[in-house]
Specification:
Layout (H helix, E strand, L loop, with lengths): L1 H30 L9 E6 L10 E2 L8 E4 L9 E6 L13 E8 L5 E2 L3 E10 L10 E8 L13 E6 L2 E6 L8 E6 L6 E10 L7 E6 L2 E7 L17 E11 L5 E13 L3
Length: about 270
């Protein structure tokens, strides 16, 4: 009887290990089957349901009082964020310039790398009294990080702009190339939530990708260069790092602006 109990104690761990190995092998086998898609990884989400700013954002691109968590205009849930910009609202680094901003910028831990696939989705709300002016305004942008601080050009690679009642999606990547308008819409986008989805692979070569949906309609499908090249003339260095921010960034003007933000999500995709 004792011998049987000893044999059983030895057999159970062996059997348990065999079951675990079998499960692992089964998972690997299923993942290799034709048509089986690998999982995409969600890197960050924010539905702006809390009273304070999520730690995935930094607060150094807006002055105190610009950010508000409110419940009057929401895309989903009970709350959404708003950013309000008045003439003269300048962060310390831009005091005395023509630039005014109130933006949320992703934390450094979320910065993106070259040749990986990312998806960003978010919703923006422009109220019906939003100024219809020719002043330069960027409401979302992806930038290539300049470690030296004096890279040329230092413009956004990809940007969502709203100028004179028109929304633009632009791309600028070459050393001397001009900004390219990838999409433009003159339709009234005020007083409603507009849903954006960007799929991006940053690359200074021709394997870069930019796919954009606006309100579930695909409006951009681009293959080509999506990063500034590494060269002495640009000042950019390897490894390339890219970051995202959205809100209000403009040249100075007297009229105030307010923008609503909700339903942010960033994922890393297996492929585009």
């Amino acid at each position: 009887m004792i011998k049987k109990m000893i044999d059983l104690k030895i057999a159970i761990p062996i059997l348990y290990k065999q079951i675990i190995i079998a499960i692992i092998l089964l998972v690997v086998f299923i993942s290799l089957l034709p048509g089986c898609k690998a999982q995409n990884a969600i890197l960050a989400t924010d539905d702006f349901e809390t009273d304070t700013l999520n730690k995935i954002w930094t607060n150094d691109k807006f002055i105190p009082g610009a950010l508000n968590m409110q419940s009057h205009h929401v895309r989903t849930g009970k709350k959404a964020a708003t950013l309000t910009l008045h003439q003269g609202d300048q962060i310390d680094q831009e005091k005395g310039t023509k630039f005014e901003r109130a933006e949320l910028i992703e934390s450094k831990i979320l910065n993106s790398s070259e040749n990986l696939n990312y998806e960003y989705s978010f919703s923006l709300f422009l109220p019906d009294n939003f100024p219809n002016v020719p002043t330069r305004l960027v409401i979302a942008q992806w930038k290539q990080k300049c470690s030296l601080g004096d890279c040329v050009p230092n413009n956004p690679l990809i940007a969502v702009r709203y100028v004179s009642g028109e929304l633009f999606i632009t791309l600028q990547t070459g050393i001397e190339s001009e900004r390219v308008v990838m999409y433009k819409i003159s339709e009234n986008l005020l007083n409603k939530w507009n849903d954006f989805k960007f799929q991006i692979r940053f690359s200074e070569k021709q394997n870069g990708r930019l796919i954009v949906w606006l309100n579930e309609k695909k409006v951009v499908n681009f293959s080509g260069m999506t990063a500034y090249p590494i060269a002495n003339s640009t000042g950019y260095k390897d490894p390339k790092v890219f970051y995202f921010k959205f809100g209000l960034y403009r040249d100075t003007m007297p009229q105030p602006m307010t923008i609503g933000i909700d339903n942010y999500k960033k994922s890393q995709l297996q492929k585009l």
